[in-house]
Structure formats: structure tokens, C-alpha cells
Amino acid sequence: MATITPTITDLVTKTGASASASSTMRAAAQGGILDGGNPSQYNASNPIILFIIQAGIILIFCRLLHYPLALLRQPRVIAEVLGGILLGPSVMGRIPGFTKAIFPTPAMPGLSLVANLGLILFLFLVGLEVDLRYFVSNWKVAVSVGAAGMALPFGLGCAIARGLYNDFQDEPGTVPIEFGTYMLFIAVAMSITAFPVLCRILTELKLMSTPVGVIGLSAGVGNDVVGWILLALCVALVNAGDGLTALWVLLTCLGYVLFLVFAVRPVFMRVLRRTRSLQDGPSQSVVALTLLIALASAFFTGVIGVHPIFGAFLAGLICPHEGGFAIKVTEKVEDLVGALFLPLYFALSGLSTNLGLLDNGITWADVVGVIAIAFVSNDIVEKKHPIREKESTDYDALQMMSFNKERPVEVHGVRLVEVTNRTSTVMKVSEADEYSLFDPVLNAFKVLGQLYNLAVSGEVAVVPAALNADTLVTKADEESADLLLLPWSETGSMSESQTISTESVRNKLASDMYSAFIAQALETAKCHVAVFINRGFTGSLKQKPSTMDRKMSTLSVRSQRDRVTAVTNTGRSHHIFLPFFGGADGRLAVRLALQLAEHPEVTATIVHFRGRNDSIGSDAGSVVAEQIVVTPKKAETQPGQDDGDAAFFALMQRSLPAELENRVVFDSSATAAPLSHAIASAQEELGQDPKNGGDLMLLGRYTVLAGNAASDKGCLGVAADMVLESGIRASVLVVQARS
């Protein structure tokens, strides 16, 4: 009994202690802020809440900073670095409790992990941007120009590295490093080329297709590759314990590069050909495989002592550019990287920057020296090679040597693709030649030219939206074009998106952006210009409403008939109606109408509308109740030239070829309201045959209505505006004679 009592007592004691311990080990409260929890308090088991707060603050802050900096044409990375500096200890960190609440030290590894993942993917995109074909095809010039371009900033970087090394080698908290490695890092950082920035500069200067642009891109590719290799060498030298280890690291890295080129890339290309990714674009599985190669490459270079970003860069280099594969992969990845991951990395770099440490004159002198070298080295190269003046001088010399020769009809098409902040559009700039070769729109345009036995060529121009009109005018000048034909956008916007509703088609003429583009082209063009507004010229633009379809269990003739795709029931005949009000634009419209009428399936009606009090030889620009006033051009400064409009009309009528007499009708009308009468006549004559290929109303542009205060509201002229507002059932072609 004496033995059992202590045993029972001990058992009861242990059981009570166990129950007490179990009662204290409770799960964390799940009510969140409803239970009084602080969402900014770091929780190692659930760090996502604080990460969202950190990412949200960084993204919003950087975007707000980017708006004013964008007015100064600064890239978004500047706003991201400045945002990190402002959120760091330099500014916001001085607010008591801010850093401890938003960026506590235990939470920084998670933010750093996501940021470094973004850096790896960004370097993968940088590798995708680099097209080694430029370097291979122009390697002699690229090597010489690239070496000359790197020599000056590299040498100046080596020079300032000595001062930086002596000033900061004894700073507390710094890791000892050899001067040679430090000098190499500073020199490479000074001389490395930002390839996307180079592409954007060449595009804005319109030098992409010139020899200067090709050489610059080739040299930029070489500098980019050499720069990243030298940075990898710096990392290897820093991480290596001694010289022998560094040698082994470099040899292993070289062997890995050869393995990627001769083992991984052929297998990868075979997979892409089997999956038709080069022809049809990468599928989700192929994109996953590509990213896996990038991450695996980053892993290997990281474990051998080189930074993981170099492996991701190499993975991007081996990706093919055939069929636009690199561009399409970039389009699928760049948004997430550029919008989320990369801002976190640059902001994290800024968070580690404390401008308060710049507290003496020597430190500020070093800062000014680094900035001066970065500016001066580039300015000297630009001063030595004045690109724009040289190109314009050569162009003027070619213009003086050109001769006017009669030639058959030639059509040159230009498809405009906007350069945006996206990396993929910058890649399209550097690969514009191949992009033009495989562009489906240009290929369809060329096939159409072959069907109609026309000399047709085309190209894709990747330019900023502000240079669209200037690009077309310059191209027309280079081709010595007689006519620049501009289509009005079907959607009323500058984008290539398809129309979703008929409302955008109905109000497409109200687009301020597209109107500004057309107006700029009309004002700066040196040749004849025509603007085409499509209103069913190749069939109806109305969308067919979606209908319910039923599943057929037995053969149903009606259901099968409903499933057949409707074919547009249009012929190939066209009718042109031209109201002639005089002036150079009107005379050009008459000549163009007669040229179009030479086609056997085209008929035309040309009516000379003049004021009721006008005689045959009177001034076509006199003002009556509703009279057309011809805006004078530089070519119409001779006195009495407008008096010849009626004589010109009579001459065109008398000289009409015999084969056109049955298809072209000349008429004249004297009325107090010429424009209203012209619109009424057009509504009676156009759109009467629903089976033809579409009717066309031809107008001159420089005609305004006397006494109309709103006559200058549209870029096409008030006559065209009134015709389009009348709801006429025909397409409209507005022409402007060369100035």
C-alpha cells in the first residue's frame, strides 16, 4: 500500500501538468483584424500579409514617382530606384517606427527572395533581347566599333576606381577585396551597354535601318555579352578563396557555356520544331520548359560560384529568334516581371541606400566624378560621330543626284507598330527585317499585288506613336511617291485590336488621337495625300448578332443550313461620285477619278457645283449664301488661277477618252447651296445597288464653308465632315494636292 500511493500521486501530477501544457499550446487566432490582430506584424508562419503590404507600398510609390519623371523622358527604373531610396533610411526611414513596422529585419529575406527571382527572370529577358545574328553577320565592324565604344569609359572607370578604392577600402563593415577585381567591376559598370535603350534611341532618331543603326546594334550586342561575361568574372574572383579556385570556376563556367550551346540548344530546338512553336508560337508547356531551363541554368551558375543571373542570361541567349519565338516568350513573361518583380528588386536596392552617409567633401567628389565620367565618355563618342548631321548631308546629296523618270505603278505598304515601354516592342525594333518578312498583313498585301499584277513591296516600321505621321511622310519622300494613301482606323484608335461593338465603328471619326495623326500627315506631306474612310467598300461592316444553335440528333436541313457560314454577296463593280468645287484639291480629285474609271468595272459621275450667280468663267471662290471657299495653297498664289476651274472642268470633259464615254458622266449645277446640293445628289446616286462592290464619294480636302465658325473643327475639312455626318451609304476618299 505504501508503494502504490506514491506511484498514483506521481501519475496524477504528471497528468495534470500534461493537461496544463496542452491547454496553453493553442492555435493562433484566425480572426485577423477582427480579433485585434495587427496585419503589419511579421508572422514567420504566414508572411504573405506583410509581403502584400510591402509590395503594395513599393508599387504605388514607384508608379506615382514615374508620372512626373516620364515627362522628363526618364525610364521607369529611375522611379523605382528613387522610390526605394525615399522609402529607405534616407527619408521615410527617419519617421519613428516606419521601418520597424513596414520593413522589419525578419521580413526582409522574403522580400529579397522575390526580388532576386525577378532579377533572374529580368536577366533571362535581357538574354532574349540579344540577337547574336547581328553580331555574327557584322562581326568585324561590331568588334572594332564595340571595342572603341568600350575603351574610353572602361579606361576612365579604371582611373576613378583607384580613388574609390583608396577612399573606401578601410570603411567599417566592408569586405576586403583585391584592387584588380574592384577595378574590373567599376570599369565594366561604366562601359556596359543598355541594349533596350540603344534600340529606343536609334528608333527615335530614325536610324534603325541605316548602316549606322545596324553597326550600332551589332556593337551593342557584343558589348552586352562581353560586359555580362566580365561581371561574371568579377563575381567568380570575389567568391573564390584563391586564384586556383577562381580558375576552376571560370573553366567550369566555360564548359557549361559549351554544354548549353552544343547539347541543350539542339535538343531544345528539336522540341520547338516538333511542337511547331516556331511557326505557331509557344504553348504553355513550351513556356514552362523555357522558364525551367532558365531557372536550372541560374541554379548551376549559382552553385559553381558565379551569380545566378549569369545563368539566366545564358539561357536567354540560346533561345532562338526564328519565327519571333523570343519575342513571343517575352510577351508572355515581361508583364509580371516588369510590373511586380523588378520594381521590388530596384526598390530593395534603394532601401539599402542611405544618403546620409554622404557626409563629407571627398565622398561627394567621388559621386560627381562617377557621374561626370558616365556623361563625358558618351558625349565624346557622340561628338566624334555626329550621326544626324552626317545622315542628312548624305541624303541631301542623293536628292540632288536623283532624276525624274516615268515608271509604272508601284505600291509600297508600311505597317506601323507602336514602340511602348514593353521589352517585346523594343525587340521588334531590332528584328524589324525578319518581322517584315513574316508579317501576315504584309504577306496578304503582297499576294494581293501579285493577283492584280502590281509591283508591291512592304515593311514593318516599329516607331513611337508620336512619330507615326513623320515616319510615313519620310518614307513617301524616300520612295518619291506621288500619292500617300492613309486609311482611317476601323476602330477609331491607333491600336490593332479588333472591333468589339458597332458603337466604336459609328464614332470612329471622333478619335482625337487618330485625327491628330491624320492632320500631322496632311500638314507635313510633300506629295499628294488621300484619306480613305471605309463604309462597306468590301461589304457590310455590321456585325451579325449571335444566335442560339441547337444540337442535331437527326438530320435537319434547316439546322444544317443555319450552320453554313454566310458569304458576302458583293460584286466587283463600283460607282464614284465626285462633287467638284474647284481648287488644287478638286482638280486632283478629278484626275484621280478618271484614272480609277479606266478600270472596266468602275463608273463615275463628276458634277461641277458652282454658285447660282456664277458664269462659266467666274471665280469659283466667290461667296454666296452657302458657297465653297477654296483655301489658297503655296502653289496657288498666282492671280486668277481659281478662275480656271470651270475651264479645267470643260477641258477634262472634252478630252475624255472614247472608251470612258459610256462609264463617265460630266455634269454641272448652279445652286445657292452647292454643298447641300452635292450631298443630296450623292445620297440619290450612291448605295442604290446592294450587290456591287461598294460605292465611293471623292472629295477635295481644302474646302471650307463661308461664314461657318466650325469650319476648322475636322482634319478632313468641313465638306468631308458634312458628308460623313449625313450618313451617306458609300465610302469616302478625301484628297489633298501637294503643297
Automatic annotation (TrEMBL):
GO biological-process terms attached to the record: proton transmembrane transport
Q: Give the highest taxon in the source lineage.
A: Eukaryota
Gene Ontology CC: one annotated term? membrane
Check the record and name the InterPro entries matching this protein.
Cation/H_exchanger_TM (IPR006153), CPA2_transporter (IPR050794), Na+/solute_symporter_sf (IPR038770)
Q: Which UniProt keywords apply?
A: Ion transport, Membrane, Transmembrane, Transmembrane helix, Transport
Q: Where in the cell is it found?
A: Membrane
Q: What is its main location?
A: membrane
Annotated TM spans: 48-65, 77-95, 107-129, 141-162, 182-202, 214-238, 244-264, 285-304
The record's GO molecular-function terms, alphabetically, read: antiporter activity
What PANTHER family does the entry give?
CATION/H + ANTIPORTER, K(+)_H(+) ANTIPORTER 1
Q: Which protein is depicted?
A: Cation/H+ exchanger transmembrane domain-containing protein
Q: Which organism is it from?
A: Friedmanniomyces endolithicus
Taxon lineage: Eukaryota, Fungi, Dikarya, Ascomycota, Pezizomycotina
